[in-house]
Amino acid sequence: MKAKIISLFHYLLVFLLIIFNTSCQAKSINIVDTNNNDQIELNFYGYKTEAINVVAIEEILQAYMDKNPNITITYESVKGTEYYEILKKRLASNNYDDIFMIDEDNLQQLTNYNYFEDLSKLKTIKNFNTNSLEQMVQPDNTIPYIPTSISAFGLYCNLDLLEKHHQSVPKNNQEFMAVCQYFIEQGITPIIANNDISLKTIALAKGLYPIYQSPEKDRIIASLNQDPSILCNYLKEGYQYVKQLIDNKFIDAATTLKTEKTADDLIQFEENKNPFMLTGAWASVRVEKSSPDLNFKVYPYPILDDGAILVSNIDTRVCINAKGPHITEAKKFIEYLSQEDVMWKFVNSQSSFSPLKEQRIADDPKIQELSPYLTSEKTILGSDSNINLPLWSLTHDGITQLLTGNSIDSALEIIKNYEQ
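Structure tokens predicted for Multiple sugar-binding protein (420 residues):
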């Protein structure tokens, strides 16, 4: 009897082991299946922090994630120069970003670190217009970024204030100087400027315009790439023009030094006390939202003897981290981003212009006067990829010299002392 009990116990134990083993095998299969459907998380780091831009970016990301349920994209942003300080640390760590934004100066600084995945094989590269491609394609035929907008810089004109004083929107330099002098005589500082993009884009426009008009443009650019001091010969005229604005009190130098771009300058302009402001056209939508009763438009810089000139940039450049863990997935997202309708959502949110072949005009009526100049001879790039110098930072430092009362020679010395 005892033997039978032991035998039955033995069979029961074998049966339970079989059941347990089968259960474990089933769980193992489920785990493998779950791993095949793991979420891929892409980190996107950028410098666009304005609410309207962030909303557009988030809508684009959400639409892409809806189409690709296994992809999650997180957008993180920091405004100002702090962005690049943090970006360099994040890239060096190899732990953070799959996708990031860059500008020309920092692209030049970081080129030798192999952070930029080549995007030349993306299917959507053919969508970009010729002007954009001339900036995107590097000497070795690689493409380290795609631009997602063409930004423009302009003269904001308070139309009601001009009309109140029986003045017109200036169309050339002579008219601009005359109307500025008129407001000085009324005790009004005519031009609001910030401590970054306002006056350096004026200097670049005035100084580099002859290069862009020359049939030997490529030769001149090649020569100044070899010898930065040659750039001084051109920028000298730009700095002279800015110094004239300062000396004539057309801008308040002390206030300008403390005025943050597309922030403090907008607040000052919205007070409805000054006829002009120099800043990025992309801020027009914010001015209109903050001060809906302010009647203004944005125009090209009226600083030429025979008319106005537009300063634009191939802008909001998006790159893929070549050292990131999800290069293939990031490229698929960039292809999605560079489709016409998708990119237009972002372009339009910035009151900017498209880098693609399409000719859509931004919905913002305040910037319509800029559109014809995009394909005109009277336009320059504020930050040209063909010029192997950090123009943006060099001119920023030069303008600071002028605003603090130093000489044109001291501003030019910064360029002469630059070591490539």
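The two ends are 97 Å apart (CA to CA).
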